[in-house]
Amino acid sequence: HPTESGFTTDVLALYDWAKARSGNSSILFWGHSLGTGIATNTARKLQEERGVQVDAVVLESPYTNIREAAAHIPITKIYRQFPGFGYLILDSLALGDMFFRSDENVKVLSCPLLILHAEDDDVVPPHLGRKLFETARSAYKDKTKVKFITFPKKLGLGHDYISSNPELPALVK
């Protein structure tokens, strides 16, 4: 069954494979939704265990940590009022060894970090992306390496369509 450490190990293997074939090309981690936790885990692991800094990390529709995300995603709203929600839902993630602590990971990263969030994201609330940005910005020595871009509701990008925005390549560059 999938585990947080398994995801991180897989991305490390993919990074090694890409790095061996990329020459001097930049390699960045781009995570979307759940993948943002995997991206920050892997970037942190590279930095702490190998002394390697990934060229950049882009987080699309991120959250602070999986427990906080699960507590705030709209699908859980009806269940939050019931006794045992924390234990049955939120604690079960921890029992499954799923934490995805992007809020802790960004505190130690030093590579460029770009956070993207749509104001009309109805899966991961935009305030979690903003909170992650604030955490990173307060921890980074070089504040210019941390950017946060929001996309207005009128664009209708929601949770899944930031990548389809035609301005995205220029924003990432």
From TrEMBL:
One of its GO terms (biological process) is phosphatidylserine catabolic process. One of its GO terms (molecular function) is phosphatidylcholine lysophospholipase activity. InterPro entries: AB_hydrolase_fold, Hydrolase_4. It holds the Pfam family Hydrolase_4. SUPFAM superfamilies: alpha/beta-Hydrolases (SSF53474). Signal peptide: none annotated. PANTHER family: ALPHA/BETA HYDROLASE DOMAIN-CONTAINING PROTEIN, PROTEIN ABHD12B. This is ABD12 lipase. The gene is Abhd12_1.
